[in-house]
Amino acid sequence: MTQPAHFQPHPDLGELRYEGKAKRVYATADPAVYIVEYKDDATAFNGVKKAQIGGKGAINNAITAAIYPQLEAAGIPTHFIEKLSEREQRVKAVEIVPVEVIVRNVAAGSFSKRLNIEEGTPLPRPVVEYCYKSDALGDPLINTDTAVSLGWATETELARIRELALQVRDFLTPFFLARGIKLIDFKLEFGKLADGSIVLADEISPDTCRFWDAETNEKMDKDRFRRDLGGVEDAYAEMLKRVTQGV
Ligand code: C5P
User: Fold this and answer.
1) 48-91 confidence digits (pLDDT tens)
2) What atom in ligand 1 is closest to the CA of residue 46?
3) Is the pTM of the predicted complex or chain greater than 0.85?
4) Count of CB atoms situated within 10 Å of the CB of 42
């Protein structure tokens, strides 16, 4: 059981389409609509480290549901339709492009390790990286030639994905800074609608972004779990407060 006993799935839930480490995706009676359910499960190092973070599913659902409409308003198409319940949201049905997109403002994590650049070193221009979405392989770093050659996306789709990823960065970086948070890096996933157009899918949350307090550089994201820093639940709750209570 990954849900508290009082959790009542939404009556529109159809067949389970996909289960990832942090979410489940269900079909609905409408083929153009899915329901996403956020879990409390946390994993790191490709599933080697596992735990439950109390309230995480509800917090990540609420943060994503607060941010996606603002991205839409800024001209970035997303899969988001509406928040349905504490843990569920209604989204447009997409076929996920199996290319994870990482955007970096500041060196950290695998970038720092790979290139021996101290964490916290600002990058003079944002860096966009691509990984193959594969749990079995641990989401390996790829380039766009690999994605095109292996048929994961076309060159046109990848150009659109890069453009949208940088637009997300241009929106989110000042959005978080106004809330006392430095956006260090983040991961996005994109999907294709039935008409072939690309939309932002997945989530934007402390699971998928690095957030550092602008005053203290305190980590306010999943690195608290990955690196055993403690205070994971408090950091996630604080991020929700800053996102929803605004400037
Ligand atoms: O580990 P790395 O430095 O490559 O992570 C970059 C960013 O992408 C971090 O914000 C991390 O939370 C996110 N990420 C993710 N899912 C992955 C890999 C990275 O959300 N599979």
Assistant:
1) 999 999 999 999 999 999 999 999 999 999 999 999 999 999 99
2) 21
3) yes
4) 20
